[in-house]
Design a protein that fits this description.
Elements: E1 4-7, H1 11-24, E2 27-33, E3 47-52, H2 63-73, E4 77-79, H3 89-97, E5 101-102, H4 107-114, H5 116-125, H6 141-151, E6 155-159, E7 169-171, H7 174-192, E8 197-201, E9 207-215, E10 221-233, E11 236-242, H8 249-265, E12 270-278, E13 284-290, H9 297-304, H10 308-316, E14 333-340, E15 342-343, E16 349-350, E17 353-354, E18 357-359, E19 366-370, E20 377-378, E21 385-393, H11 396-409, E22 411-413, H12 419-427, H13 429-432, H14 440-445
Parallel strand pairs: 1-2, 1-4, 2-3, 4-5
Antiparallel strand pairs: 6-7, 6-8, 9-10, 9-12, 10-11, 11-14, 12-13, 14-21, 15-16, 17-20, 18-22, 19-21
Helix pairs in contact: 3-4, 6-7, 11-12
Bound molecules: ligand MV4.
């Protein structure tokens, strides 16, 4: 096992990884930008190294600065957290070249899954259902029109280098397909320096259900059930839960088995997530693989009792997954609310600034993952997540009740947060019934 790990991230996930290291008797070395120099979690690390100024490009995205810190601290491994360098296959390769373990999947698996056209091909080979559409990249708008005529309108134009909803455009007829195709190509070239596009049939009012899996370096793969992340706004998740309230036991088993087949076909190791869209008839389709630990991973930790970050570290150190699939139980219901420093009544405008009041909820079945505290200042340079509030109860109804109580207790001021919209969501009849699709937020809260 490693004796020293560099944590190449900030905020709540840096703290989450530092905690896993402390639980495992591993020294955690933190890195920080000048904007984060006063962050209290740095005191929980064995040591902390400044890697640059405020801007992410010069600090948390600066591979050379992070690898220099890793060499200086003489670590055996780097945990990238999520975002920043977490899904950068070149960074994983640079770690390998420096003889430092990257705590995540192989550079090869990451590069392949990062190309959504290749991932789609892999899914088909693994007999995982994909949305009807192009077999590879689509070169011209004429070709796009031919494919759309075959699968039928409406369609969705997607960027091969996209993901997480970036670079997507719907088209409901030939004219908009032609113009959106050209726009999408230009956009993808600018955003990703890769203009490759593909086409799928548009799935209307989909639900987002994802399956957590773990693979080790000996080819063992297990799943840890699903999370429902349908409650999003502009591709930012607000609420996640497990089990999914939408799917029956049969669909659930098929979804989880499909994720394992795909991970196996990719030669995947470490923690990963296979994302599916579920349509109104209960059909499901592969979307993409997230080759990292995700923000919402604690939902799965609560229902399975497994520590996913510790598993990532053990797997990177070469340990096998000793769990058999039938030993991974799903207990009760868990819900997570992402508390962001944003103003929901002002189009979710980011609201950085000093926190003076920070009263954290607790009690049975409540977990709060946060790096914030009274006296902490939310920086304008990074994402606005300040806390993840989770509850775990025997049933979904009890979990909703526990979340209402916890949200009432949670007091953050004077900065604006998403706490009020979470309180409103927990009172919404459709949410309480588990009747939520990806348009719920716009339909229920925007322009009302
Ligand atoms: C789609 C879709 C409809 N049809 N693909 C957004 C995230 C990315 N992983 C896939 N996404 C979508 N892909 C087809 N063929 C609709 C979405 C989508 C969405 C998916 C999940 C959760 C929220 C969403 C919000 C808007 C669009």
């Amino acid at each position: 096992m490693f004796s020293r790990i560099l944590v190449a991230n900030r905020g709540e996930i840096a703290l989450r990884v530092i905690r896993a290291c402390r639980d495992m008797g591993i020294e955690a070395i933190a890195v920080f930008s000048r904007a984060d120099r006063d962050a209290a979690y740095l005191n929980l690390a064995h040591d902390a190294i400044c890697i640059g100024p405020e801007s992410p490009a010069q600090s948390y995205l600066n591979a050379a600065a992070i690898l220099s810190a890793a060499e200086l601290a003489d670590v055996q491994a780097i945990h990238p957290g999520y975002g920043f360098l977490a899904e950068n296959s070149k960074f994983a390769q640079m770690c390998r070249d420096c003889k430092i373990e990257f705590i995540g999947p192989s550079a090869e698996a990451m590069a392949m899954l990062g190309d959504k056209v290749q991932a789609r091909k892999l899914a088909k080979e693994a007999k995982v259902a994909t949305v009807p559409g192009s077999s590879g990249t689509v070169e011209t708008d004429d070709e796009a029109v031919t494919i759309a005529a075959k699968i039928g309108y409406p369609v969705m134009i997607k960027a091969a280098a996209g993901g997480g909803g970036r670079g997507m455009r719907p088209a409901h007829n030939e004219a908009t397909l032609r113009s959106n195709f050209r726009h999408a190509r230009a956009e993808a070239e600018t955003a990703f320096r890769d203009g490759n596009l593909y086409i799928e049939k548009l799935i209307e009012r989909p639900r987002h259900v994802e399956v957590q899996f773990l693979g080790d370096r000996r080819g063992n793969i297990v799943h840890l059930w699903e999370r429902d992340c349908s409650l999003q706004r502009r591709h930012q998740k607000l609420v996640e839960e497990s089990p999914s309230p939408h799917i029956n036991a049969r669909t659930r088993a098929k979804l989880c088995e499909a994720a394992v087949r795909l991970a196996r076909a990719a030669g995947y190791y470490s923690a990963g997530t296979c994302e599916f869209l579920v349509d109104e008839a209960g059909g499901f389709y592969f979307m993409e693989v997230n080759a990292r630990i995700q923000v919402e991973h604690p939902v799965t930790e609560l229902v399975t009792g497994e520590d996913l970050v510790q598993w990532q570290i053990r797997i990177a150190a070469g340990e096998p997954i000793k769990l058999r699939q039938d030993e991974i139980k799903h207990r009760g219901a868990a819900i997570e609310c992402r508390i962001n420093a944003e103003s929901p009544e002002d189009d979710f405008r980011p609201c950085p600034g000093p926190i003076h009041q920070f009263i954290v909820p607790g009690g049975p079945g409540v977990r709060v993952d946060t790096h914030a505290y009274a006296g902490y200042t939310v920086s304008p340079h990074y994402d606005s997540l300040i806390a993840k509030l989770l509850v775990h109860r025997p049933t979904r109804a009890e979990a909703v009740h526990a979340m209402r109580r916890a949200l009432e207790e949670f007091t953050i001021g004077p900065i604006k947060t998403t706490l009020p919209i979470h309180r409103a969501i927990m009172e919404q009849a459709d949410f309480v019934k588990g009747n939520v699709d990806t348009n719920f937020i716009e339909r229920t809260f925007v322009n009302k």
